[in-house]
Amino acid sequence: MKVLVIGSGGREHALAWKLVQSPRVQRVLVAPGNSGTASGHPAIENVTVAASGVGGTSTPADYVACAVLHGIGLTVVGPEAPLADGVVDAFEAAGLRIFGPTQAAAQLESSKAFSKAFMDRHGIPTASHATFTGVAEAHAHLDVVGAPIVVKADGLAAGKGVVVAMTLTEAHAAVDAMLGSDGVHSAVNDGDVARVVIESFFPREEATFIVMSDGQHVCALATSQDHKRLLDGDLGPNTGGMGAYSPAPVVTPEVHARALREVILPTIRGMQAEGRVFRGFLYAGLMIQPDGGIKVLEFNTRLGDPETQPILMRLKSDLFEALLAATDGRLDQVELQWDRRTALGVVMAAHGYPLEVRKGDVIHALPAETDDAVVFHAGAAQIAGEVVTSGGRVLCVTALADSPRLAQARAYEVLAGISFDGMQFRKDIGYRAVKPR
Ligand code: GLY
Hints:
Strand content: 25-35%
Number of helices: 14
Strand order of the largest sheet: 3-2-1-4-5
Distance between the termini: 46 Å
Bound molecules: glycine
Helix content: 25-40%
């Protein structure tokens, strides 16, 4: 069967890399893909999709046309934007097989206000919160509640819509960036109304808990943890994620059971009860408190990036078969097998990321894949025979080893051979798992 992966990041490179390992997958097409999916494997290729949407974006109808043209049997959606645009609804209307949530179900991510209200309705543990459309009211609220505090953009913000502000200055700046007249209006959702959700902060460790759901049954993926801040020690600006590792030791068997019982299952049942059946990858960003209590920090309706890269390096089962089962409503028959080792990925980002990203820097000495290390491409493109930077997060150097410490050492060993002008990376990815607990 031919499989289509929608997206162009490291997550999509990892999806294609894993899918092509299935004996039942003939080819993986990636729309639009990156340099890694252009040349990494003879059975993976990039395809061009029409871009008839506003601002030169591809519409759900453009993706349907691409799938029909190439005789695609199964489509997997990487990023959130096509889901929020209704790509799954369009494929289903055309009778095409696709794995991902409908537009209505994707609101769990595309509207933080919907997501928080949903959690309240279904007794899913989350921090107390208030939603604002007015910038002055949001600032006034911050002055009353103080910091640390969490500020979230209501709309999609490419993984950067959640700011954990340790000071009031940071919190006010986040509100300005999301709502203010000189801001980027990243909080725009529901037509033209911009909203922010401001919620209480709890001292905690965060972990990523992702499941596949066929609307009724769920199958948990391996746990992981990412590093959202740009700089070592979790300092500096928020990013889409500077590195990740799997498994996350903070998710003990007890926490795992609680996450399923208190968060995942009530969410799947609640979405079903509200007529928004959730089929797809459900990503719960969890806050794990010192006593093992959990609260949901955010829901995403897709795989995480860069979490997917280490997670899929540990997946021993056939991902294609699992996706097929999920689209058939047979996930209760699937049990995924995981490599017991740790996988750890370090993101190499471009000059200026996460603000003004410079493109076009030539990437030198990309190593060939080995059994224990893969360099997943993201914001990288092949131009005139060279691989050059083309986005903020450029590569994710991912390694597999017997312990977090060894996986960390191996990932940084591989990374040391790669270079491009202006490269930025954290030197402490995995530090929580590496330090003695
Ligand atoms: N790594 C965070 C995200 O995918 O949203």
